[in-house]
Amino acid sequence: MLILTKQHIEQVFTMKDAIEADKEALRLYTEGKCEVPLRVNIDIPKQQGQSLFMPAYVEGLDATGVKIVSVFPNNIKQGKPSVPAQMILLDGKTGEVCAIMDGTYLTQLRTGAVQGAATDILARADSKIAVLFGTGGQASAQLEAMLNVRDLEEVRVFDLDYERAKSFAAQMQQQFASFKTRIVAVEDGDAAIVDADIITAVTTSKRPVFNGNLVKKGTHINGVGAYTPQMQELPEIIVQRADKVVFDTTEGVLAEAGDVIIPIDKGIVSKQDFTGELGQVILGQAKGRENDEEITLFKTVGTAVLDVVTAQLIYEKAMQHGVGQQVEI
User: Fold this and answer.
1) I need a surface site. Which of 86, 157, 168, 302 has the fewest CB within 10 A?
2) Contacts with 290 (C-beta within 8 Å, 6 or more apart), sequence order
């Protein structure tokens, strides 16, 4: 069995690798070559915590896995992560556990990558200006994904805490200096989006984080952060204005994404207004961007298929390069 830390994964697997892995995962999902049971949530009231178990089987890769994510806010008092996570990967042919890897980094990687996949497929090829809403734990991977799929001149970063946005932008400017992209903090999110080509929101806000009427034609929008029916970072008007609305998985988005559920409940849009899944666009079963005037929108809430496919490909590359720690149990 192979143990893989974040550092091990970084040695063998890039964001570009992850973007291609996520495209493959969503293609396999749309083709029906995956089994994704409902996740299991176990509440642990004694510790004010919760553990989530997210399994999937991917027939196309002979891979099975389960990601275990716990939310224990009190861990911070002990100097431990409040959201520890591990990915357990099984050999789909034998059922044996073949790898255990850092689930926190895996989640950041595949979540950034699924946005990168959508941006690569749906954003205008000549996109130069992007705006990123949110500077939390997912933000750096979201930024890296955008930088990998478009030759951006400037990325504007907005956070309710402007000082935090400035600190994040400075850190990212240094971390991603090789891309030659200006990364700047902004105090006014609405002003930042007026001429933006790509907008990515990665917050847990319950109120829209920008004015959808200000979005210009030809813009691509990613809704990444809001993952419950009560969260809503995207304005209802932009869901209505978008010419193409694409999901990672229709089932997941319609069950969990307030960005979509709320405008449906208000009668602003209907299920018939949506384009379909990114996997369908990849397979040519649904149309993506057809011209430079269209507004395209991608909404993701995540799926265990992304975890399993990405983990399997990480495992294969680690084995090829002799990276990681082998243990016998």
Assistant:
1) 86
2) none
Strand 49-58 to strand 63-71: parallel, antiparallel, or no bridges (unpaired)? Answer: antiparallel
Q: What domains lie within the chain, and their CATH numbers?
A: 2-107+305-326 (3.30.1780.10), 124-302 (3.40.50.720)
- Rounded Cα distance between 259 and 182, Å, is 29
Q: Is the pLDDT of residue 123 over 90?
A: yes
Q: How confident is the model at residue 312, as a pLDDT?
A: 98
**Quick one: average pLDDT of 96-122?**
98
Calpha distance 129→181 (Å, rounded): 10
Pairing outcome for strands 220-223 and 40-44: unpaired
Helix (H) or strand (E) holding 306: helix 304-321
Q: Convert the pLDDT of each residue in 261-296 to its tens digit.
A: 999 999 999 999 999 999 999 999 999 999 999 999
- Look up residue 87 and give its amino acid: M
Tell me, what amino acid is at 74? N
Active site residue 217: no
Give CA separation, 101 vs 89, 106, 124, 193, 239, in Å: 8, 8, 35, 38, 37
Alpha helices in 176-242 (DSSP H): 189-193, 236-241
Q: Check pLDDT > 90 for residue 39.
A: no
Catalytic residue from among 6, 46, 67, 271: 67
